Amino acid sequence: MAKLILMVGLPFSGKTTRAKALERELGALRLTPDEWHLKLFGQDVYDPCHDSRHSAVEGIMVDLAFQLLHKGISVILDFGFWAVEERVYFRDRARAGGFDFAICYCRCPDDELEARLAQRNSDADAQSFYIPLEKYREYEKIFQVPTGLEGDIIS
Prior knowledge:
Layout: E1 3-8, H1 15-26, E2 29-31, H2 33-41, H3 50-70, E3 75-80, H4 84-96, E4 100-105, H5 110-121, H6 133-142, E5 153-154
Parallel strand pairs: 1-3, 1-4, 2-3, 4-5
């Protein structure tokens, strides 16, 4: 049975690294918006259109994900999914379609996350977006840790 896996965690918590491993292990298709966004628009984090562009990329990926699930292909959505309501929405949609569902929660100590952030921000060729430390600290405040009530949590 096809499975939908949501990668959950803050930036630099290891989501994409783990998603790549799951992709190989499960023969699933991994959809990582940052990769597509950077190829299409570059490092545009300060551009006023950044958020709408990123939402459009994610919307295309969600449509593609459910098309693939209906064809029997498992999909990993490597979006971050910071809010409970997002995760519950995708869990319910997957189950309504008759697909398996799991959350892969990537956690990392705060000091390690900030060290990774500083390292990535200093890399001009980074394949992820530049995120100012102040903005990152805002993200930490709004992130909601997943619970088993939302679905199976894998590591």
